[in-house]
Amino acid sequence: MILDKIYDSKDVKKLSIEEMNSLASEMRELIIKKVNAIGGHMAPNLGIVEATIALHYVFDLPNDKVIYDVSHQCYPHKILTRRKEGFTDPDKYLKYTGYTAPEESEYDLFKIGHTSTSVSLATGVAKARNLNGENYNVIALIGDGSLSGGEALEGLDNAATLNSNIIIVVNDNEMSIAENHGGLYGNLKTLRETKGNSECNFFKSLGFEYLYVENGNNIQDMISAFEKVKDTKKPTILHIHTLKGKGLAQAEADKETFHYIMPGLLDEKPDNAKIQLPEDYTSITREFIKNKIKTDKKAIVINAGTPGVFGFDSEYRKELGEQYTDVGIAEEHAVAYASALAKNGAKPIFTVMSSFIQRTYDQLSQDLGLNNSPITMLVYWGGISAADATHLCTFDIPLISNIPNLVYMSPTNKEEYLAMLEYAYNQNEHPIAIRIPMTELISTGIPDNTDYSQINKYKTISKGEKVAILGLGNFFNLACEVKDELLKKLNINATLINPIYTTGIDEDLLEELKQNHELVITLEDGMLDGGFGEKISRFYGNSNVKTLNFGSKKEFTDRIPLDELYKRYHLTKELIIEDIRNTICEKICK
Amino acid sequence: MILDKIYDSKDVKKLSIEEMNSLASEMRELIIKKVNAIGGHMAPNLGIVEATIALHYVFDLPNDKVIYDVSHQCYPHKILTRRKEGFTDPDKYLKYTGYTAPEESEYDLFKIGHTSTSVSLATGVAKARNLNGENYNVIALIGDGSLSGGEALEGLDNAATLNSNIIIVVNDNEMSIAENHGGLYGNLKTLRETKGNSECNFFKSLGFEYLYVENGNNIQDMISAFEKVKDTKKPTILHIHTLKGKGLAQAEADKETFHYIMPGLLDEKPDNAKIQLPEDYTSITREFIKNKIKTDKKAIVINAGTPGVFGFDSEYRKELGEQYTDVGIAEEHAVAYASALAKNGAKPIFTVMSSFIQRTYDQLSQDLGLNNSPITMLVYWGGISAADATHLCTFDIPLISNIPNLVYMSPTNKEEYLAMLEYAYNQNEHPIAIRIPMTELISTGIPDNTDYSQINKYKTISKGEKVAILGLGNFFNLACEVKDELLKKLNINATLINPIYTTGIDEDLLEELKQNHELVITLEDGMLDGGFGEKISRFYGNSNVKTLNFGSKKEFTDRIPLDELYKRYHLTKELIIEDIRNTICEKICK
User: Fold this and answer.
1) How far apart are CA B517 and CA B496, in angstroms?
2) Comparing C-alpha atoms, which of B115, B153, B120, B147 is closest to residue A153?
3) What is the tens place of the pLDDT at every residue in A410-469?
4) Which of A80, B75, B151, B183 is deepest in the core (most CB within 10 A)?
5) Do the beta carbons of residue B243 and residue B17 sit within 8 Å?
6) What are phi and psi of B70, to 5 degrees?
7) Are A161 and B149 an interchain contact pair (Cβ–Cβ within 8 Å)?
């Protein structure tokens, strides 16, 4: 095993090409085994093995600096930088995160998980080097899919004028997560077809030096290329052509499925794949969208480069035809585009992950909110999660709720969700965002006839006294549990409310609660700071009604199990009851 | 007067070239007179007069649609679309906003004021047209300065693949607000020099058809060009070369000063311009920065295309040399770049307007907050304002305050501000933002020795009882007034606190206040939703202390005088006293 000889980057330099080729195979095997065991980014890492080995061979890391965009293709880099055990030892599979992490290693400069940031970060690193009077290479490695993001494009425009060493490796595997979208990819194709020789060159137009490598999976070719650009004094693009998923037949054949996989995908028998999955919020959303597309030629669905999250597989996308736009990773464009579609009579539905909605704040405010365009925006995965610090989904309520004119709704079951979808789609008054529940599908079986055009009108589920519980979206069920527990433990028959709207308060209802309630508690699946509960506390601030807000703290958590977070934030019925008892007991408990 | 013949767009079509040339002169005269009288965007509008006339001559507005980027060059368009009176009649100078506004005219599609949005919006309009089965031209007009924004670049990448009519007029006047920055401008220069014939063409690389007009201030040339691209079925760039400030000698000579002017600039005697202006927060900031740059080679100041806001005139910029980066309009890049500079040992100071900080939320969170990079960020103009709806500065506290790891400080006087600047610059712990006061310069004359590294430690200015007043930043003086008034009117000796940090709460101090206070009020110069006060209300929610939060509502206001807004939001000492009385009087007033 060549791998046995590898402790860190420097050991790569001692290898022959033949040994490096063996090393690539060994690394690939490790990656396939680990990712299949615990899930993760499969195809991006398989494609970049050779380039990573060559990079460590040619450059003097960590003195030279490398920054991986999205950093979901850093597994080979981690193997070569003292973290091999995270791949060889199943007991240590979870020891290291799937992204670069400075706290793990001096070979990692930044915590990175959102796309399109590497070029700007590398420009800053290079400029600091210049100010410090130092002298080393700064390398950003960015995939073609990430190039379309505004930050990457702003970064390229600026990096090109740095007038000193910066090397941007464009890893062109002809893919985003799904297929690529946008004019830039046409140019990458032209450049591939002309082996980098076309004069019509996006990168050269910005002022970069430019070099093309036809076979980015050939270690010798990559070493030669890196040696050519090493120590350059000019901003330089190294455009390398690689095969996403290389070395794993299934991944090469279906790059999209193997971009990120859940554990065990390779173990599944072919038949299992065809089992009908149970209905869930994603499937009913998909169904809703398909029906609209079929029956309304003005319907159009938009997403920004992550169709798999919403279950938009290639067959489904084909069915949507011209009524589907994948803008690529370009959330800012997506929101402005959707706003303009709505203003011009179309019916846009924009689907987006909670973690990525924050990539487009100004557009939500200026293009959408200020123009009050009636789009439907579906926010997936919003809620406290055990995810990596780079992919938390706890910030969408504060983000969306404090932009004027936006309406953000949180359904609690299937029927409510479908009714909200219909309302949002058909109305012409507001930008409506809906937070798709993260719970299992809950069905009441009873169609929901609520008039959701009465913005900020909360639903009273059951009237009680002393304590009122406002249980938002994902946490409505927790609210029900708390209600039951209050009766059992403190003999309080609490009022239960489904507030629905995170963007506003139902003043009449809140006012009425003052009559026979001592305490109003709020439960929201997200950060308290700037969120829903604080609006309720502000409302009651000048009254005798007390409030308790339950949700998450303002912090970046990193792969902390959900039950631990729930304990930390007092998000269990027991801890909530305890807090209620401490707040009001001397006064009203029996 | 040709102008007398013009009511709306259609009347332009009846004119001869000669008449249109006269019309251009007449319009230019109106614009100069009005802008000098009430202030506004001078040079951008003077440069686009001929192109606007030609556009209205060739296209069938409002059936064909035109979208102006930033829309600060829409004055000629307004003159030709039934809003001439807003320029001919001084009594109606303020009737129309300086930006496009659908509520004013069917010729305006969107409310626009932030840059770089027009291409994405036009793409949405064009796509809706296609879905509707309609057939008309969609035109975006974008200045070279706006091209560098991420949204514009994302938009171009997507517009290029629309596969139907969209015409993007790139108004290249060789200027951003100040000089242009970024590699893209090198390509515009190459294209100008080759009269559009270079094969190395940024726009063609994305897949656009491309046409160049050497003299964009020649009506006949512009008519010919527009006629060529009209009804095209392909995404097309019309690159026009114009003269910013054309027709006003001073503006042609000093395009930057005349980008946006205050009233009366043209009336000023040359000598007046040299009068030493009094010290203000902008001047002491400028001085602070210059000293750091001189004494610390690792110091670097960054701004995103609006140097004039911070008083960085061309001479000052020259002095900063390599320790100054204007990234162009590219706030996302600016924040990531600053974060990386700080992580690599440099000392970045990023200056930004409150209204534009929201253009970079994800970078504040991921590139900066998550990586906890010790940059100094100076936020200008934060506060409730009488501005146009597109340029409000009321959202920065909610935006910044709810991102983990960021620290946002609000000084109340010169000495505090300088001490905070020193602290922020020298520390290595946090990203620190400082909200530069919008008040006149207040000096205590006593150096401030506060240890600001004790994050979230509020300052108690005077201890009292019953009522505590937390007066943040700009509103600290209002808090002082309220304190005096409380003593006078209600005989309450209130506690006065300067909370400094909008990003967190001083739990010890707030806890202590419970002992002898019935009411805590907060005053903040910005939106209440998601802001500072709500954090205080949440803290006290489960206690007997009542709270009142004063600040602005969640709404887009549009050119409403400040005193009217203050009344609306109860931000006068009289109204605040009234609210306090209503909240606590039966209990504690004497």
Assistant:
1) 12
2) B153
3) 999 999 999 999 999 999 999 999 999 999 999 999 999 999 999 999 999 999 999 999
4) B151
5) no
6) 60, -35
7) no
Structure tokens at A186: 């046409």
* Neighbour tally for A454: CB within 10 Å: 10
Tell me, what's the pLDDT at B270?
Answer: 58
In whole angstroms, what is the distance from residue A563 CA to residue A573 CA? 12
Helix axes A17-38 and A219-229, enclosed angle (nearest 10): 100
Contact with chain B for residue A365, Cβ under 8 A:
yes
Q: How far is CA B174 from CA A490, B143, B249, B256, in A?
A: 73, 9, 17, 11
pLDDT of A178: 74
Nearest-10 Cα torsion for B483, B489, B493, B498: -10
Strands A40-41 and A65-68: unpaired
Q: What is the pLDDT of residues A140-168, one digit of tens each?
A: 999 989 999 999 999 999 999 999 999 99
Taking only the tens place, the pLDDT of each residue in A197-219 is 999 999 999 999 999 999 999 99
How many other β-carbons are positioned within 10 Å of the β-carbon of residue B4?
A: 9
Token pair belonging to B128: 């809706």
Q: Does B328 touch chain A (CB under 8 A)?
A: yes
pLDDT at position B277: 79
pTM (predicted TM-score): 0.96
B552 forms bridges with which residues in the sheet? B527
Q: How close B26 comes to chain A (CA, Å)?
A: 33
Instruction: Tell which phi-psi region holds residue A500, choosing left (phi > 0), alpha (psi between -120 and 50) or beta.
Output: left
The CA distance from A204 to A197, in Å, is: 11
**Token pair of B430, please?**
């946090």
Q: How far apart are CA B243 and CA A413, in angstroms?
A: 59
Pairing of strands B495-498, B459-462: antiparallel
Assign residue A347 a region: left if phi > 0, alpha if psi is -120 to 50, beta otherwise? Answer: beta
Question: How far apart, in Å, are the Cα atoms of B399 and each of A450, A505, B374?
Answer: 33, 20, 19
Locate B265 and state its tokens. Answer: 């600039």
Q: How would you classify the pairing of strands A432-435 and A459-462?
A: unpaired
Q: How far apart are CA B406 and CA B325, in angstroms?
A: 23
**Cα separations in angstroms, A78 against A66, A224, A241, B67:** 12, 23, 22, 48
Residue labelled with tokens 């000063």: B257
Rounded Cα distance between A416 and A83, Å, is 48
Computed over its alpha carbons, how large is the radius of gyration of chain B?
26
Q: What is the pLDDT of residue A588?
A: 60
Q: With contacts defined as CB-CB under 8 Å, which chain A residues touch B370? A: 111, 389-390, 556
pLDDT at B176: 72
Contact A213, A239 (CB under 8 A): yes
Domains (ranges, CATH) in chain A? Answer: 2-261 (3.40.50.970), 281-435 (3.40.50.970), 459-588 (3.40.50.920)
Query: Does the beta-carbon distance from B549 to A528 stay under 8 Å?
Result: no
